[in-house]
Amino acid sequence: MATVTVVDLTHLNCSEHDICLEKRIRTFCANTENGSQETIFITVLQDNSTGTDRFLRNCIRETCVGLHNSQQVLCKSSLCASMYSFKQAIDKKEVADVKIITSTHGREMFQVYQELLFTSAYTFEYLIEFDNLCCSLGDPTITCTQIAEVKREVDTFLQHLPAVKGDITIIRSPLISDYFAHGFTTRIGGISYINTLSSLNLFCNPRRKDSRAAVSENLRRLGQQAGFQPHQFNLIKCNHANDVWVMGKPAPDSYDGMVTNQAGVVIAAPGADCMPLLFTDPVAKAIGVAHAGWKGTLTGIAMAIVNAMVSEFGSRPENIVCVIGPSVGPCCFTLEQHSATEFCAIHPDCVRHMESPTPYVDIRLATRVLLERGGLKQEHIENIQIPNETSSTLCTSCQPELFFSHVRDGVNFGTQIGYVWIKEESNQ
Description:
428 residues, Rossmann fold, CNF1/YfiH-like putative cysteine hydrolases, six-stranded mixed beta sheet, EC 2.4.2.1, hydrolase activity, zinc, innate immunity
């Protein structure tokens, strides 16, 4: 497995800056095996002058002349910018193993950036080789204040990045009353750049390469567009089951549904083929969201939301509206025959080619049938559409330019969401 080596040349405020850089480069070269196939990235924090950059490149060229490593110099205006550029470079090469040659102080600093800009999909190894170079600057310990400053630096840096794919697009339903604010996101308008996560990915999975900081910035941008603050936002903790959290009560460890009657509380359901379901009751003034995959559909997550709204807030099923968000269509979604049989039992039209080992399944139709049986009016259930589009469905797998899809992209998929909240009285 390929490994990228980072040589830490960040060394601000040192009265012997150039001498210390040269010592670090010579130490690195002395400890590096000639002919190594590792790609080497050398990062430096500099003061926006070209002098440091020119000196550094000349020193590397002269000192590392005997090495045959592939080398790249990242000389940015901040360590944050250098680390972000470094991440982009290794992601392009699809490398996840990183070796950083640094000092004890440098390791502490790099680990702060590692926590913010990377996930556990990457492996970091730190080699302490620069502690005994007799630098007059010393090697102070990282303080809590410095860590907070790095966090602010990263947030500010990400806020100034351009969107990767156009402006944020929010799809809304005319079926939902203006008493509520709501929407379904697409993949457009965020800063995530890895192909299957680009660009408005709204869920951080530590096994994937989109950092929590990047996802938080995507959420901040969505909130600006939609009209909410990140602290108002609550996302379902999925388990592909039928547990529902009634907000205000103790939360389960995992839940595929949430309900509330509190104004100003944004609740959201993720989806990447699974259905994000939005429920509103303009009479009882209550809302709910559900994450409904095929397993959740069979275990009854949609009606679990309805039942919670009825029992907790006095809703009547005939007053509840449900909008089914972008999800995988029967054109692309298949299941093993024994699972498809359970959908056929809900309604025969939910399955095509039942004789096949992997029949095509319509999870949206199954949801509609179950909700109608539970008392929702047919006209109160909608499959979301893009206004002025002729297509009757939004299949996440069929439309890679608009949506993330597990079926299409595999395990490294991104996540879009459906969200809803009850507007504050002054905003209605």
